[in-house]
Design brief:
The complex is a heterodimer of chains A (about 375) and B (about 130). Chain A is about 20% helix and about 30% strand. Chain A is α+β, with helices and mostly antiparallel strands. Chain B is about 20% helix and about 35% strand. Chain B is globular, with a radius of gyration of 13 Å. Classes of the chains: A alpha+beta (about 375), B alpha+beta (about 130).
Chain lengths: ~375, ~130
């Protein structure tokens, strides 16, 4: 791999000043933890935490054909959705493999969409989207550099949004909707979304304004949280991470994300391949597995039955909120039904496990 | 700053060794437990298993990762610390007060290749 200069988010110096442990992620140098992953995780579950997610990519699609085009590259159905609505879904390759999973925001301007993609995929996504646009009257822009982003997550998030930041419109947002507002003259997007399984908001603003918002929240005592607990939180909530539960070689159907694929909306890239996969029956699926031991199943460990490998762990932890050793794994269909007995190889030993639902923690979204 | 105990021997992979006659107690150093963070599981070998110096004998798990444990001496496991099965956090509370395995040393145990406290401090200062 080519050695590239790691990018810094607008909040980088603040992370360093707070003593965060910094590590490369998605082409950026990002905070993994400030104090402890467990304390940060629990802050989000019980109170609130804030994440620098400025590394995420933002791409806009505008023009007379925008709706038609987004529906062509995206698995969910954006036709006729109201302004201020957000949909989750995937972009697919023709063979059904996943380019990326993303959020699509229907903008308040006519024929305009705001796409939020994974940091590590931003450039590739942008090129992919542009390459599909032939024959569509659309303008596509990668505007990632002009946006900073903070995710404010946890049961106290709404109170912090209104009382500390004074963004009163936040209280009226339903889950997966957003509004446009201002922070000291800077245009701002506030959405009721997140990646933790808790209620919360994602705030997009200019890098300068994002720094100001971070400082206000920090002064108010909000716990800064790193990518370490972002992963433990999303994992417990059953949310996929690209590169683990989704990838070029994993389709949304295999990942158990079929509810975000709308076959009846008309053609979209990957539709035929997914229909064929559906018709033939899935050969493998992402499932949850619990083991009755304190050992921790981790990404890459084999899932076995009678000494034969039948799958592989994609993410695993000693779950902080449930204190169970659990993982999600891609397993062959014969072993993918609830309560199926499998074994996970952890170093030299195997540990008996039981297939279970991949959401280990009951989410607390505000509907 | 990580704690160091004088009179113990140390390995490059951050295990400590307390030799007592033909036996040695083996644990992880304070430096190691600090680097790992909250320890949630200690994988230990069975009693009677034999390990050569440098061989993997178990692992410690924290939220982020599993770290292998390497046997700093050659010998046969005579006892494992059962307390750590249900209370792995003891290693965070006091890494030097909680040994992980006790080993009956081989004739060529390689004890003489381990570092003393001063040499270990020196090594850690360069990390």
């Amino acid at each position: 791999m080519e050695k590239e200069e790691l990018l810094k988010t607008c909040l980088h110096d603040r992370h360093v000043a707070l003593g965060a442990q910094m590590s490369p992620f998605g082409g950026f140098i990002m905070p993994i933890q400030y104090s402890s992953i467990i304390d940060e995780h629990n802050a989000v579950r019980n109170d609130a935490g804030m994440f620098d997610v400025s590394h995420m990519g933002e791409i806009t699609v505008c023009g007379p054909d925008a709706e038609k085009f987004v529906n062509f590259i995206f698995t969910n159905d954006v036709s006729g959705i109201p302004c201020g609505k957000i949909l989750y879904g995937m972009m697919l390759y023709p063979d059904g493999g996943t380019v990326d999973d993303l959020l699509v925001y229907k903008e308040f301007e006519k024929d305009s969409f705001f796409l939020v993609v994974n940091a590590s995929n931003t450039d590739r996504d942008y090129e992919w989207i542009c390459a599909q646009a032939e024959g569509y009257d659309v303008e596509i822009r990668n505007c990632s550099a002009q946006w900073g982003e903070i995710a404010l997550q946890g049961p106290s998030a709404e109170k912090l949004m209104t009382e500390v930041l004074g963004i009163h419109a936040a209280a009226d947002l339903a889950f997966y909707t957003y509004c446009r507002t201002e922070w000291k003259g800077s245009g701002m997007i506030v959405s009721r979304t997140g990646y933790t399984g808790e209620d919360g908001f994602e705030i997009y603003c200019s890098p300068e304004a994002i720094c100001g918002i971070w400082d206000v929240l920090l002064d108010a005592g909000v716990m800064p949280c790193g990518l370490g607990c972002r992963d433990t939180l999303r994992f417990e909530a059953g949310l996929p991470l690209y590169g683990h539960e989704l990838s070029e070689s994993i389709t949304p159907l295999e990942a158990g994300l079929g509810m975000f694929v709308k076959f009846d909306k008309g053609d979209f890239i990957g539709r035929e391949a997914l229909l064929a996969q559906k018709e033939a029956g899935l050969q493998r699926r992402i499932v949850g597995i619990e083991i009755q031991d304190r050992a921790v199943p981790r990404a890459g460990y084999p899932v076995e039955v009678a000494g034969v490998q039948v799958g592989v762990v994609t993410t695993g932890y000693r779950s902080i909120s449930t204190d169970r050793s659990v993982c999600v794994a891609m397993v062959e269909k014969e072993y993918a039904s609830l309560d199926a007995h499998v074994e996970i190889r952890i170093r030299k030993r195997t540990f008996p496990g039981t297939v279970c639902k991949k959401r280990f923690y009951t989410t607390n979204y505000k509907k | 700053m990580a704690k160091i105990v004088e009179g113990l021997l140390y390995s490059e992979s951050h295990e400590w060794v307390r030799v007592d006659g033909g036996y040695a107690c083996i644990g992880i150093t304070d430096y190691a437990q600090q680097a790992l963070g909250a320890i949630s599981y200690v994988e230990m070998p069975d009693e009677g298993e034999e390990f050569a110096r440098g061989e993997e004998f178990g692992a410690v798990e924290s939220v982020k990762a599993a770290s292998n444990l390497y046997c700093p001496v050659s010998g046969v496991v005579s006892q494992i610390n059962e307390e750590l099965v249900d209370a792995p956090e003891l290693l965070n509370q006091d890494a030097f007060a909680n040994w992980i395995i006790k080993v009956e040393l081989d004739a060529s145990s390689h004890v003489d290749e381990l570092m003393d406290a001063a040499a270990y401090v020196e090594m850690c200062s360069k990390l």
